Each structure stands twice: as C-alpha cells, then as structure tokens.
Amino acid sequence: MKQWWNWRKRESELEKEIQHHLRMAEADRRDRGASTADAQAAARREFGNVGLTKELARDAWGWRWLQDLFEDVRYGLRVLRQNPGYTSAAILAIALGVGINVGIFSVLNGFALRLLPIPRADQLVSINQVLHGHFSRNVHGEGGLVSYPEYRDYRDHSNVFSQLAAYEPFVDVTLAGVHPEQLLGALATCNFFEVLSEHPAQGRGFTDSDCSTPGGNPVVVVSDAVWRQNLSADPALIGKTILLNHTAYTVVGIMPNGFTGTEVIPTAFWVPITMQKTFDGAGDYLEQDNLSWLTMLGRVHPGVSLKQVHADLSVIAGRIDQRHPGRSTSLLIAPATLFGRPDERALFLPIASVVLAAFGLVLLIACANVSNLLLARATARQKEIALRLAIGAGRWRLMRQLLTESLLLSLAGGAVGSLLALWSFEGIIRFVMSALPREVSTLAINLAPDFRVLAYALGLTLLTGIAFGLIPAWKSSRLDLNTALKNDGMQSGSGAKSGRLLRHTLVGAQVAVCMVLLLAAGLLLRALSYAQTIDPGFDLKHVASVALDLKVQGYDVNRATVFTQTLRQRIAAIPGVTEVAQAEDAPLSHDWSGGEFSIPGKSGDLSIEYNRVTPEFFSVIGVPIVRGRNFGPNDWRGNSVVIVTEATARRFWPGEEPLGKTLREDKREYSVIGVAKDAQVSHLGESDSTYLYFPATPEYSLRAFVLTRFAGDPAVTLKAVRDAVQSLDRDLPADVARLEDYLEVWRTPSRIASGLAGALGGLALLLASIGVYGMVSYSVNRSVREIGIRIALGADSSKIMAHVLRYAMRPVLIGTLVGTGACAAVSWILSSLLFGLNPRDPIAFIAVPVFLLLVALAASYIPARRALRVDPVIALRYE
Fold first, then answer.
1. Rounded CA gap, 107 and 452, in Å?
2. In whole angstroms, how far apart are CA 487 and each of 41, 339, 381, 870?
3. Segments making up each domain of the chain, as ranges
4. Is the pLDDT score of 493 beyond 70?
5. Alpha carbons 458 and 411: distance in angstroms, whole number
6. pLDDT tens column, 247-269
7. Which of 632, 612, 613, 617 is closest to 673 using CA atoms?
8. The pairing of beta strand 668-676 with beta strand 703-710
9. The model's pTM
C-alpha cells in the first residue's frame, strides 16, 4: 500500500528509465552514421510499444487495478461534469427512486429492527414460545407468551442470564381525576428496571418486597409523560397516591424523560405483577401454569451467544413440556426490539413486504429511465468508444469504465435522495400518525439513521448503479467498429435494431410498473369514494354509542348489571332520546365476538361472528326482522334462542324454512326464532357475511355498548350521555361517540393507503413520462436526416407525425396491457381496503389506462412536433 502513495514517483522513475533506454539506442545509431530522425524511429521500433511496457511494469508492481480505478473515477467525473443536463436528469431520477426507498426502510427499521433504546441493548433478548402438538392452552394476549410458573422455571434454572424479567403489556386502566383518562401500562416483575438498566429519574423502582405478597403492595412507577400531562408535573408526587381502576396506588418513581418502555405504543405506568388480580377480575393468573400472558426479556451474560441461550432454555422448555402431555415447545430468541414478538411480526411482515415492493417498483422505473439515458448517451459517444476498442482496449476494461460512470451517478443520486429522505420522512410520519386513532398516534418510533439504515442506503445505491448501468455498458462495448468509425450511428450499437428494441423494452417496463401503481391508487381512491356513500344496511345517523369496560374497573356481574340498567334508564330520560339498547359489540366498532358452531346433520364446525343484544337493538339501528320474531324480555333466561341474518339462512338452509332450525355450540343448542335483514354491522363492505344475534345476558354487562337513538343536536345529546355515566361513577371514563364516527375508523387506513399509493403512482407517472419523452426525443434527434429527406420529397406532415407517434406509443401500449394484466392478477391483495368494491373494478381498469395513455401521448407529442419543424436544407447537412 505504501507503493500506492508513491505512485507518481514510481511513474516518473519508469518514464525516465524508458527515455534513458531510448536515448542510448538513438545515440548508438547516430554513432553508426544514421540521421537523428532515422535513429529515433529505429530506437522506438526496437524498444516496442511504450504504453504496453508501462502497463506490464504497473502489473508487476501489483496495484494497477487501484490506479485504473482512480483513472476511471477521474475520467468519469470529467465526463459527467461536461454534460450537466444529462448528469442532472440522471441524478434526479436516482435520488427520487433511492430516496423514497431509504425513507421507508428507516421507518421499518424503527419499528422492527432497531434495538430498544436502553443501555447495552445488544445484551437484551426476547424469548417467545412456539407450541406444537395436540393440547389445549388458554391465551390472554398472544399465543407465544408464557405463564408466570413457566417464567419462574426459566428464571430459576437458566445459566445464561444475569437477570430475566417478565411483563404483561397493554394493560388498559383508568386514571381517576377531574377528567378520567384511559392509560396503557404494564404489569412487571420487580426486576424489570434492573434488566433494562433503566432507573427512575425521581424516586425508586421496584424492590423485592413489592412483589412478595399478591395484591399486597399497590405501588406504581409512572412515565415522565404521564407525570407532566396527567399529573400536572407535581414536584411532590413521590409518596402520593393515584387511583387506577378505583384502587389507590402509591407513586414510588417517575421514569426519565424519553423512556417510553419496551413496546411500540408508549407505556404510561408500571405496576408489580403481583397486583394482577386488581386489574383483571377474571381470576388469579399468577398460579395458572397453562396461560399465555407474559412477555419475557433477559439480559445475557457478556460473551453469551443467542445459540447458547437457545440451547440452555431448550432444556428447561423440555422439562416444562413434560407437565403438559402432547405438547412440544420450540423457542424463538432474538434481540429485543419494539416490534419483535411472533404475532406482531406475523402482522407486520406482510404489510412491510407489500410496502417495500411498491416503493421498489418506483426505483425500478427510475433504473429503467436512467438506463435509457445511458443508452442515448452511449450512442453520442460511439466514435470515442470505437476508437478505444480499435487501439486495443478490452471490452471488460471498457465496461468497467462505463460502469464506473454509472456508479458515480448512482452514488451522487443516492446521497442526495438519502439526505432528503432522512430529512423529510420524520415529518411525513408525524403527519400520517396524526390521522390515526388516538391510541396509536404517539408510536414510540425512532427514525434517526443508524448503521443499518446507512448500510441499506449504500447497498441500494451500489445495486442501483450496477442495475441501470450494466446493460448500457454491455451494449456499448459490442460496437461494429467499421461502421462506428464511419460515424453512422444509426447502424451501430445502440442505434441498431437491437438497440431500439432494448430502449422500447425499458420504456415498456416503466409503463407496466407505472400502470400497476396507478391502478392500485385508482382502486383505493374508488373504494374511498365508495365508502363515503356506502349504505351499510342500517341507520347510522342520530345514534350515539358509549363503550363500557366495567370488568377492568373492578365491577362484578351484579354491580355491572345494576350499573348498565340504571344507565339505560337515565339515558332514556334525556330529552330527545327515543330509544336505548345494549349490545356486546357496537356496529362497525372494530369489536368482534365469534365462536365455533355446528349444524345438526352436517359435519364440520363453522367459525361464526355474533353479537349479544337486547330486544331494542334492532329498532335502534334500524335493522328489521324480516321473518319470525324479535327477542322477548325473558328470552335471555333460557339462553337458547338465536336470530340469524338473511345471508346466514341462505347459506345454512338453502331453500328451506330457517325458523325452528337448530345451531349447536359445544353441548348447547339454539333455536332460530327470527331472520334479520343483512347489514354491514361487523365489517364495512361485507353485507352477506354469516352473522348471529343472541339475547344479552347479565354477564355480558361487564363489557358492553349502550346505544342511544336521539333527535336533536348531537353535541347536546352526547354531552348528556357522558354526564349520565359520570353521575353513576365519576371515575369511569365515558367514551361516547356517534355511530357515524366509527365509519372514519374504517376509512382512515384506506385514506392513508390511497394517499401513499397516489403519491407513488404520481411519482411513477412522472418518471415514466420522462422516459417516454426521452425515448421519442432521442428518436427524433437520430432521425433528423431521414425526416428532412421525407419533407424534401413532399411527405405530408401529418403522416410524419403519425409515424413518430406510432413509434412512440407501441411500447407504451404494450406496457399498459402488461401492467393492467399484472394488476388484475394481484389486486386481491387490496381487498381488505376496498369495502366490498370489486378488485377488478371496471371503472378503474378503464379510466386509469386511458389516463396513462393520454399522458404518454402528450409526452410523445412534444418532441414529435419538433420533427415537423425540420428545415430540409439543414437536415440534409445533418451528420
């Protein structure tokens, strides 16, 4: 390497040595009587090719490749600097393609790849179980979580952790106050903060005594955000009590500013795991060995690998399996991230794959665009390239030079695009999240670039440079030297028939990819428009909904029944209220209930969604009973009757009378007493889904919706309903909304997806239009002489225009057909966002291709019009 830094000195010494040999040979011939000119010529003939001698000497030094690279870079920079228009266009296309991909990867990295923002995060691992075999398991949360006895086994018998903690995430509680607030917190083992190496900024964390007695130590550590926003930043808060779900908890610590916990949704508070029963009236989870409810995080000893952790814990898992015959456990152990549990990744990865593919398509268009630019540029450099080949340059050497220029363009474009993406995407994500529901609008995501993002940006940039530069470099090195040296560009290299075919293929590929993105955007926009006017089959207007979760507030069944009955009476007394009903799930509320049912005489179980409602439900939301009868006031006592929808009756008993038919759930049978009109009460856009209605029983008062039909001012009624709830329990949060508001929850994902698809489609359309314009412009420039001759011979201008446009639109039309077919094949991916709209909606599949063809025609017309302005005299002198 030292020789590299002295290369100029070595070159100088080599040049002096060669000149010395030449001078000695010249002097010898002059001494023998030759003239000076003859002596010089003879000496050079005897010495041979000076350039080849230098190359052989550099090869012997061993670092010729490095010098060649330096020369290639220097020459490439000079070429790009001499062609600012071409360079700027290429860099802009690459910056757009690479930039948006780096931006979206930084988002995905913040969600699922970046380690938790805690000290020595590389030592922290998450442990999840995957259970196999024939067994039964209770699940509270996600299936890969562990029970508390299982956690104790892993904690007490493992040898790879300095400490192992467990916690239950997303514990929903109510913080009492003037305005009760819903908070998401965590139940954690008392070593939780030690495992994370995070400690409160004020007060203390948990001690072993806090977890010594189940239900005996109501202490809490709150986040800095809760302290500031909900507790008025009280400087003397430590030691005071706050009410969580009607239970007094002593605040022992306040976490530092910026610490949001271990989940993608910030955690508001942490309570000892031994207080579990006060948060969930379902029972004591601590002693249930067969219940999934806890996430495990462990801090490994320094130097311990994931493989060693897996081997150590697998032995413990095998012993646990012996307590559960028929079950075998495999473990998923990975570095701890915000979005790292298997169920989360199963939800996240398909979405991430679709998003990355969509953004990758824009990059593909950009690559095709720049490849066309390079092909056009190579045609202008044919004579230079031919001369290089003629004097002995190898094709690989020439390709390397051209690829170096491509990589320089890519590096410049990638750098510009990455900087713009990292600068702008944080603001874009904040804007998008502001449109999301309140519960997820404050996601704890860090978009700051790290090594992974920078490596992705560099790798994508280099791959892009090779992708768009390889084909033009290969094509440019395969010139017909005889024709090229005569400067007949139309008959050589890129100007030949194969070159035209390649350029058309690249343009067609751009149009096809653009077509896919535009059709996706068109379908989503059509679906969003459809959702604005969709008739869900029931009356949304003038219906208020209040959601109650009394179970987490410490209510038992008797108290909850009395509460809901009293609340319905008080709401019914509000002026303007015409009717009140109760349901387990409100229509379109994103709350679903379901179970496994069977039909006597038919094999197999059926997964069916259902709702438990009071008799007033159907009149409150305007769903008529079309056959049979409604529930009576005492039908709930036997709990043996059911009302089915029209679609359910047709599906289960086609051509038969559904009334009196029987459905079975486990050992309980239900008789059909009525048929309700089909309505989209569960999923917007699905009116013919299988759906059942059961009478509401008292135990379903613990978690229920109270629905109110009213006349008059909605704001006044909603406030009155909220006051009615507060009059019964001032610490109970009253989540009151109009049923119409639930529609927005359904529309929001579609609106975001439509905006994203529209932005990508617009960017793809811009790049594809530039590609079409560039192809036609290049073709016109290469055909100036031919067009001039045609005009001179009296050709009609309209025919010339038609000829140019036919040439331009042929690859566009082919690309449109290919893209339309491809989108038709994969449009089912968008079904969940289309609200029942046909994934092959004819309006979208006709309007979007026509729009794209019109844009392409406009992009073709501008350079084609120049063809009609060619002066025949100037054209005949061209080239």
1. 12
2. 32, 61, 10, 21
3. 2-62, 65-114+342-495, 121-336, 496-536+742-879, 543-711
4. no
5. 8
6. 899 999 999 998 999 988 899 99
7. 632
8. unpaired
9. 0.76
